[in-house]
Amino acid sequence: MISIVMPVKNTAHFLPECIHSILQQTETNWELIAVNDHSTDNSKDVLTSFAQNDKRIKVIDNKGNGIIDALQLGYVFSNGNFITRMDSDDIMSPNKLETQKNQLLQFGKNHIALGLVKYFSNAPLGDGYKKYETWLNKLTNKGLNFSEIYKECVIASPCWMVFREDFDKCGGFNSSIYPEDYDLTFRFYKNKLICIPSQEILHYWRDYPERTSRNDVHYADSSFINIKLIHFLTIDYNNTKKLIIWGAGKKGKKIAQQLIEKKIPFDWICDNPKKIGKHIYNQLMLDYKTVDEYKNYQSIITVANSDFQKDIKKFLGKMNLLQGGDFFFFC
Asked: 58, 90, 163, 189: least CB-packed within 10 angstroms?
């Protein structure tokens, strides 16, 4: 059986379409644990109405507050061999659960079943969402999601499925770190789960002005920078190597501040002639060309321009340095 854990907060307007997409799944052996997170609209009534007509649907009131508490509580009530999450304002493709379950049965444990995603909205989608969708699907198409994990969340929060044992091995929903979906993705990565390539759209991701990820402080840019550095220092940082930060923009400065607070030594390089030779946070800014002088180092690259990133990747590749081991793109 598949357990679907779904936090619900003030999405009554979208819930019928969401739940109908679950009821219409070609895979029928599932349970939906819907956790009402103190909704002030009639979400609870909508959920209860569906639950009365289908015993596979369980409705629970969140005893805590927020998505993390809701996910943790929902998982306590789950019984499935396979675990997945759903957002209460989204839509599943009809074969989503069947496809992901079959992939896991084919490839076995220590794997993550994914799927391509497609954003939809009543209003025109911004370029940022389109670029993220394209980037994410390109990674998922080949199962290379973890290769760029420090750029952005590389697994769509409502489009994954894993064996229960693997989920528990990775700590499940037990972490209290936000953004919770990115944190879980890092824990999948840390525990070396393997992404199964997917070439099929399995999830439709709704965007609208009130969406939680647009408004909640837990999903601000600063939270993403924090979580990247936390997991980098735990998973990939090698303290026997010199650490270098590329770029002195907003993200580079934020990372530098945190490294200074943690008393982790680093060198700081950039290509801005106005900054080279100056001190920022008492740290001397060096010319990026000095990287040739280093023999044993890791680089955190915060340069956002995609063309510059390609140049840096090519430059470091000529030095036989590897992305994901010797250098990491943080944007």
From this structure: 58
